[in-house]
Amino acid sequence: xxxxxQLKLYTQVVADTGDFESIAQFKPIDATTNPSLIxxxxxxxxxxxxxxxxxxYGKKNGSNSASxxxxxxxxxxxxxxxxxxxxxxxxxxxxxxxxLSFDIExxxxxxxxxxxxxxxxxxxxxxxxxxxxxxxxxxxxxxxLEKEGIHCNLTLLFSKAQAIACAEAKVQLISPFVGRIxxxxxxxxxxxxxxxxxDPGVLSVNYxxxxxxxxxxxxxxxxxxxRNIGEIIELAGCDLLxxxxxxxxxxxxxxxxxxxxxxxxxSKTMDIQQIHLDERTYRWLHNEDAMAVEKLxxxxxxxxxxxxxxxxxxxxxx
Length: 318
What we know:
By secondary structure, the protein is an alpha/beta fold. It contains 15 helices and 8 strands. Strand 5, helix 8 and strand 6 (about 175) form a beta-alpha-beta unit. Helix 3 runs parallel beside helix 15 (about 290-315), helix 4 crosses helix 5 and helix 5 packs across helix 6. The longest helix has 28 residues, at about 290-315.
C-alpha cells in the first residue's frame, strides 16, 4: 500500500481544497474550505456557473447593494459546499466571515444563516461544520451553536489555551495549524527547515491529541496546514488530517512503510496536568504564546483580505 492508503487505516483523511476534481480523485471522507480556497476556485472557468447562480440569488434576495452582496457571498459559500457534498461521503466545513471573529452575536447570526441556506436546499445540518476562528468569542459562539445542533470546526488554532477552551466548550472539531506554527519557528530560529519529529507544529498537535484522549474530551482533532509529508507521517493516528491535493498526491506516490504515531491507549498512560479555563486564564495563557498571538491575528487578517477580494469580484458582477 502507498502512504495515503496506509494513513487511511489510522486517520480520517480530509481534502483541504475547493476543487471538486481533486476531491473526487483522492476520496477523502470530508472536505474543508475557507475564503482563500473559495476565491481561488471562483476564478476558474469550470466554476463560473456557481458564481453566476450566486449573483442571481443575491439580486433576488437582497433589498439593496450591500445586502445583495452579502446574500451572494453566503450563497456562493453554500454552493461550493453543496457541490463538495456530492463528492465526499460525510461533511463539509464552511467558514463564517473572519471579520466576525470578535463578535459573538454576529457569528451566531451568520452561522445560523448559512445553515438555513443549506437546509433550504435539502442539506441536513449534520453534513455541515461551521468554521469559526478560535478566538474567545468564536469559541463562545461555537458553544452556543453546538447546543442548537449546529456543529463547528474551530480554525486558526495555535495554542494550548485555544485547544483546551474548545474542548471545554464541547465543540465538534478543531483544526490546529501545523504548517503555520512551523513557519513561525523556522523564521524565529533563522533556519531553512526543522525535522518533522522536532517540528513545533507536529509537537503541538501531539500534545493536544494526547490531552484530549487522556481526559476523554470528545472534540475531534484535525491537523491542518501542512508544509510537507513528513509532518503528516508524524501525525498518523490523529483523528483527522486535512491535506492539500499536492500533498495527497505525494503520499499516493510514496510506497514507504507508515507507522501509527498517535494512539489513544498510549495517551491514557501519560503524565499530563488538566487545566480549566475561564476567560481571564484563557487570555493570559494564550498571550504567553507569542507565536499563537501573532499567527491567530495574521490568519484572521489573511482570510479577511481574501474575503474582500471575493467581495470585489462578486460586486463587479452585481
